[in-house]
């Protein structure tokens, strides 16, 4: 029962911090444009990865695919 003396204030402080954080997001407008964010994540227009300029046949010769990350070793057919 003595542990409740510590756990209840900690729970109240963490709950208060969560409430303050939520109110801060409301005041700064983080929930203003929900539809724009929903469509932006599906669009390739805002892709932050640079375009790969190598032609497709160069990738095929090295065993690379578009799904292979640049740091991964090329796969060899078995």
From TrEMBL:
Spans traversing the lipid bilayer: 6-26
Lineage top rank: taxon: Bacteria
Pfam families for this protein: FixS
Compositional bias of kind Basic and acidic residues: 42-64
Keyword Transferase listed: no
Ranges for region Disordered: 42-78
Keyword vocabulary terms for this entry: Membrane, Transmembrane, Transmembrane helix
InterPro entries the UniProt entry points to: Cyt_oxidase_maturation_cbb3
PANTHER family in alphabetical order: FIXS PROTEIN
The protein's name in its UniProt record: Cbb3-type cytochrome oxidase maturation protein
Species whose genome carries this gene: Amaricoccus macauensis
